[in-house]
Amino acid sequence: MAEPVNKTAHAFDKTRFEALLNRRFFYAPAFEIYGGVAGLYDYGPAGSSLQANIISEWRKHFIIEDYMLELDTTVMTPASVFETSGHVARFADWMVKDTKTGDVLRADHLVKGVLEARLAGDQEARGVAAQPKDDEKDKKKKKKAAKTVAAVLPDETVKEYESILAQLDNYSGPELGELCRKHNLRNPDTDNEVSEPQEFNLMFASSIGPTGQHPGYLRPETAQGHFLNFSRLLDYNNGRIPFASAQIGRSFRNEISPRAGLLRVREFTMAEIEHFVDPEDKNHEKFAEARNVELTLLDKYTQVSGSSKVTKMTVGEAVDNGIIANQTLGYFIARISQFLLKIGINPERLRFRQHMANEMAHYATDCWDAEIHNSTGWTECVGCADRAAYDLSVHSARTGHPLVVRQALKEPIITEREVAEFNKKLLGKTFKQDAGVLQKAVESMDEAELIRLKGELSQGKATIKASEDKSFEITPELLTIERKTFKQSIREYTPNVIEPSFGLGRILYTLLEHSFWAREQDEERGVLSLPPLVAPTKVLIVPLSAREEFDPLVKEVSSKLRRAGVFSRVDDSNTSIGKRYARNDELGTPYGVTIDFASVQNRTMTLRERDTMSQRIGTIDDVIATVTELVFGTVDWAEACRRLPAYDGVQAVD
Ligand SMILES: Nc1ncnc2c1ncn2[C@@H]1O[C@H](COP(=O)(O)OP(=O)(O)OP(=O)(O)O)[C@@H](O)[C@H]1O
To answer: Taking each helix axis from N to C terminus, what angle separates 173-182 and 107-126, rounded to the nearest 10 degrees?
Structure first.
């Protein structure tokens, strides 16, 4: 077997990485020939296939595994929906303006950028080596942009900056303004002062129809489509709960200053799950299967104390100890972790960060973000929140449509209580305009007060004090109080919602970063070690020459791979085999098969593995059988090497 490859021989080089993505057209700025628009990107063939494969795995991992109900709801949404959901009032970020140029910046990003740059300057002045995972060039760029000179900061300032950064998401707009003033935080591009933070709503406004009288918005998330269809979904699920709906679709956010490539864009694909659950029972029937999944957690108490120290524990321990609020939330966090690792995210660079009190919506009971480390730092890629009953309750209150579960009780609940009943005719006649006041006073009485009143009435008369200056004398003819039995056979409740919300662009980008490395012997030769599961092309078919006698074999191999369900491509370009493989290493193609003269004569074929570049040989059918299993993950490369002898002929690679 080939020697293990050293994928960390060269430090991560963002410029080379981005050049590769651009060269191989994973994605590119949209409307580029018109000058482009910040925050809008087009995916090319490689990026589109990669995204489609991630989505396909997402559907299997979540929708199929847990029998979720899939939806495809509209992007254009009437304004009333977002008025009700709170987005019109609150879906906003804080922005500041450069007081001289008028440039707009997101307030929390300004604080983060400048403080990080000052800390980097401090590290440099102290001669401290950068953390191995940090992208050195990127840090330097930030420092330069922030007009920061390398200078040692007092220890207490370093501590204060670190504490601010650890709880950045906890600050309100005015607090961010206060931080800018206190620490003299200026626009890093111009060194000018900035204005007080103002709120900016991130939704794209539009209008529906020709009159302009029906305001609408492009949705900033897919979630409302799930909530508004709740009754139909419940009906589809035979009235049973818990169940989850799932939707993959486009969302739009008018981000203040999108500068971080795919990480912050104005139009992106989301995959969202809304799991509807009984508020009185948030256990999950498959929790036992997830219990031992190990997680890296950064809880809210640690962050508030100004630290970013993570703890490793199983999801079972986290739920048992009350760190994660309930089993259902824990189940989804574990499943999210499994999904991200399966598609190739580096486990060392994945953590789950709990929201701090101010960061979380007022109605949410617990919320965790899956954050993935990349060259810009830790980035939220998936949010997972327990949103309680908020969404269904507000839409139900606004529309009058009951978004509730009505559940037949196995055992009816029998209750007894005192019931007060007025003789309406006598009440009006006796108390005239005060009748209503008296009635309200009785209606607001609790059980104990009614029993006391009943006792008084049994003596012939009673006095009711409706307010400081109003008392009424009543008789048993006017009011009777009787103990009655009630039988309740239906329980009606608004379900709670647990919502995992994925941004696919962020996941795709961080996956590409984690997969990128350069060959030890040659920094120019970039490789994307994408797992076969998500790689755009699984097998590259490389005919050694363009001679006609190769054609039938190329057709045979292509068609056999197609029939086996393996996505392959033929590269018969007029260039050396080494160059063809190098190009496909950059596209992340995990395997290659070479058809050469021996193939024509002996029906043999070589099989190449991308990362090690090692090659094996076998009959065409054996190689196809093995590579099919490799692609579907039923065997690994070690097993392939046991099955197929090493190829010791002329190396097909430069
Ligand atoms: N502008 C964006 N560009 C790309 N992906 C995004 C963007 N905004 C949100 N997402 C993705 O959608 C997911 C769910 O959205 P959510 O509303 O929780 O994000 P958010 O908290 O607003 O993100 P951030 O604080 O980074 O703006 C995020 O985890 C992220 O993956």
So the answer is: 40
Residue 654 pLDDT exceeds 50:
no
Query: Residue 627 belongs to a domain with what CATH number?
Result: 3.40.50.800
Residue of 43, 380, 384, 391 best suited for mutating to test ligand 1, as the one with most atoms within 8 Å of CB: 380
The closest alpha carbon to 228, from 337, 80, 35, belongs to 80
Name the token pair of 440.
């309200």
The CATH code of the domain that includes 363 is: 3.30.930.10
With a 6 Å cutoff on the Cβ, whether 264 touches ligand 1 is: yes
ipTM score here? Answer: 0.98
Q: Is residue 527 part of a domain?
A: no
Gyration radius (Cα) of the chain, Å: 32
Question: What are 546-560's pLDDT values in tens digits?
Answer: 888 899 999 999 999
Q: Residue 123: give its domain's CATH number.
A: 3.30.40.230
268 lines ligand 1 (CB under 6 A): yes
Number of domains in the chain: 4
**Rounded (5°) CA angle 632-638-640:** 60
Output the pLDDT for position 48.
98
Residue nearest atom 19 in ligand 1 by C-alpha distance: 383
DSSP state of 646: B
Sign of CA dihedral 381, 385, 389, 390: negative
Domain that holds residue 320: 14-74+219-391+496-507
385 lines ligand 1 (CB under 6 A): no
Quick check: is 209 in a domain?
Answer: no
Which residue's alpha carbon is nearest to atom 30 within ligand 1? 503
- The protein residue with its alpha carbon nearest to ligand 1, atom 12, reads 503
Instruction: Give a yes or no: residue 2 inside a domain.
Output: no
Q: Is 376 in the pocket of ligand 1 (CB under 6 A)?
A: no
Instruction: Tell me what pLDDT residue 129 has.
Output: 56
Does residue 138 carry a pLDDT above 60?
A: no
DSSP 153: P
Q: Give the mean model confidence (pLDDT) for residues 33-62.
A: 97
By the 8 A CB rule, do 122 and 152 touch? Answer: yes
